[in-house]
């Protein structure tokens, strides 16, 4: 039996064509039903954006005219945030009013708007209160950062909970599930937790503060930031190094800035036949040429050790805490000036010598050579 084969049906082209036609009909129905509202919502959004731009320009101009320069940045930031929230509120209210089925969200959206404004203003009040209390109790910057971060995290969590509650979402069961997951995650992230605990320990123990110059086993630099996970320092080579808090808390940390002034040491060799007092006068005479070197406490030149081929002198002087960062350069410049002063005065700066003496071989019977 022979017959024509329906290729379109065999390849499924008819079904594909019907599916595309049905999709096109559904899309046309959606465009016909919601298209005008979508265009209207887009037009209202553009109108609100233009209105936001105009109101912002006028409001910022009034701020510059009536507010004190110190309060101007704070008022400008608060006003900008309030205007942005109002712009988003108008857009969302327009969308919920134009599209059927979204009218019930108008009330929660408006309540969230008021809630966000209240949270923002409340956070500003809390920041002001924390600043006043920190000044009253004399807290340093690191502790201020710790307290501010903790309160900010609690405030954000409270805001998320209240916003979710406006839409009927209960976060308590979710938080309970996250607590169980957090326990499991804690076992898998022991290093992270160790750094967090070490960070809190460093903030409470305060072996150094922000701006101090510290030296660890592998790094040396100025502390620019202390987070709950890392200690960040800025080295003399303009490198920014992040050290895990666990390593800093468990290592020996030298704080070069906490004591105020810093004493530097220089070793200067001198020949045995030279007079130490003359070398002392010459070395002390080069220090007044360096304004970074303090006259009080007075510099000293002492005999540190009598070596095999020379006398090792120790030159000690002090610099201010503000010159700790450049102390290696100061030390090298003073060493260069000391060498030039001794050389100009004719004092010998010896270097290690080693004498090698080759004795002749002892007489003995001649060696016998093997016959080839």
Domain count: 3
- Total DSSP E strands: 8
Mass-distribution shape: elongated
Mean pLDDT, to the nearest integer, reads 80
Beta content comes to: 5-15%
> Looking across the biggest beta sheet, what order are the strands in?
4-3-2-1-5
Radius of gyration (CA) equals 39 Å
| First and last CA, distance | 108 Å
The percent of residues in helical segments reads 55-70%
Q: Mind describing the biggest β-sheet?
A: 5 strands, antiparallel
Which residue ranges are poorly predicted, with pLDDT under 50 across at least 5 consecutive positions?
none
Oligomerization state: single chain
Continuous helix count: 10
Helix/strand order: HHHHHHHEEEEHEEHEEH
Structural class: alpha+beta
Fold and architecture overview:
The chain is α+β, with helices and mostly antiparallel strands and 372 residues long. It has three domains: 31-176, no CATH class; 199-255, Roll (SH3 type barrels), CATH 2.30.30; 262-344, 2-Layer Sandwich (Alpha-Beta Plaits). Helix content is 57%, strand content 13%. The protein is built from ten helices and eight strands. Strands 4-3-2-1-5 form a five-stranded antiparallel sheet. A three-stranded antiparallel sheet has the order 6-8-7, with helices on one face. Strand 2 (220-226) and strand 3 form a beta hairpin. Helix 3 (72-98) runs antiparallel to helix 4 (106-137), helix 4 runs antiparallel to helix 5 (141-166) and helix 9 (276-286) packs across helix 10 (327-344). The radius of gyration is 39 Å and the shape is elongated. The mean pLDDT is 80.
């Amino acid at each position: 039996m022979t017959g024509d084969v329906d290729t379109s049906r065999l390849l499924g082209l008819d079904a594909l064509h019907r599916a595309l036609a049905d999709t096109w009909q559904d899309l046309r129905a959606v465009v016909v039903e919601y298209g005008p509202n979508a265009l209207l919502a887009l037009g209202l959004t553009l109108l609100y954006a233009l209105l936001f731009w105009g109101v912002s320009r006028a409001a910022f101009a009034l701020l510059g005219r009536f507010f004190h320069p110190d309060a101007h940045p704070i008022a400008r930031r608060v006003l900008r945030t309030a205007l942005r929230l109002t712009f988003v509120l108008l857009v969302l209210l327009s969308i919920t009013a134009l599209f059927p089925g979204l009218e019930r969200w108008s009330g929660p959206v408006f309540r969230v708007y008021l809630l966000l404004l209240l949270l923002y203003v409340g956070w500003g009040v809390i920041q002001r209160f924390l600043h006043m209390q920190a000044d009253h109790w004399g807290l340093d910057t690191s502790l201020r950062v710790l307290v501010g971060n903790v309160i900010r995290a609690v405030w954000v969590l409270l805001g998320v909970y209240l916003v979710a509650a406006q839409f009927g979402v209960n976060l308590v069961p979710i938080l309970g599930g996250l607590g169980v997951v957090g326990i499991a995650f804690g076992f898998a992230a022991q290093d992270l937790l160790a750094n967090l605990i070490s960070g809190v320990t460093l903030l409470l123990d305060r072996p150094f503060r922000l701006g101090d110059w510290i030296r660890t086993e592998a790094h040396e630099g100025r502390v620019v930031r202390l987070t709950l996970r890392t200690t960040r320092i800025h080295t003399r080579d303009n490198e920014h190094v992040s050290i895990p808090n666990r390593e800093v808390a468990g290592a020996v940390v030298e704080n070069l800035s906490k004591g105020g002034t810093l004493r530097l040491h220089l070793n200067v060799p001198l020949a045995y036949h030279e007079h130490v007092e003359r070398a002392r006068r010459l070395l002390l005479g080069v220090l007044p040429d360096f304004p970074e070197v303090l006259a009080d406490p007075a510099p000293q030149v002492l005999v540190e050790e009598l070596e095999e081929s020379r006398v090792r002198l120790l030159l000690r002087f002090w610099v201010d805490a503000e010159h700790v960062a450049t102390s290696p350069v100061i030390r090298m410049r003073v060493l260069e000036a000391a060498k030039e002063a001794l050389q100009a005065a004719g004092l010998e700066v010896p270097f290690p010598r080693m004498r090698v003496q080759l004795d002749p071989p002892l007489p003995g019977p001649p060696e016998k050579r093997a016959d080839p």
